[in-house]
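Researcher: Here's a chain I'd like modeled. Treat it as a single chain, no partners, no ligands.
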Amino acid sequence: MHSGEMIIGDIPVNIQRKNSLKNMYIRVNPPEGSVVVSAPIDLTDDEIRLFVLRKIPEVKKVRDRMLAQERQTKREYVSGESHYLWGKPYRLQVIYEGNSRKILKTPTKIIMTVPEGTPVETRETIFTEWYRQELKRILDSVVTRCEKRTGLQANEYRIRNMRTRWGTCNVEDRRIWINLQLVKKPIECLEYVVTHELVHLVEKNHTHRFQSLVAEYYPAWRDAKKLLTEMPLDYMEKGIVDIDESQEDTE
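Model: Modeled as a single isolated chain. Structure tokens:
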């Protein structure tokens, strides 16, 4: 892979040329709105520049929205903090007593009980593992609905705390990875991401056919995607927004 940077339309653009690509992609990465272009290795700088210039208005629109989006401060896992679960904010209450480490959810609060002196890193680990179990609890039913709706099946689903994507699909192994951060979003967002990744099993790239299949299998995908972009982001999250799917398939 060969990388470089250009200034296009007053925006720094990171260019990544790859042997494996046939099409060109533009992505904007939260939280700072950095722009990355992935391109076939044989494309010239002028071809890349022209391609990006056509998309500059949309790039700027996405960057402006991203920079304005509310973002939570760094979590310290102390009483009084707000933590999201399935799109709803809960007030955290931390109780220091005994030797047990557990988390209990009430209609309005998440109660974490830990031994006195438990450091913030350990409280974060406990909370993250609880999030993982919550996502696992819901994921099975969501997968069942999505696979039935699409008629597509993956061999395996795994959860990973990713900074760059809500989900990924290894087409060859038919393995789908789901971002742990989706446990904080409404369940509709999880359904959209699972559907999106399942469609990659039959359409590897983001072509018009890909978008048509996603819309067919999950008609409310735009609403779910809007929730992903409008809800407050976690401090650590760095997602990806696709601006253009390919040089052959522009909108």
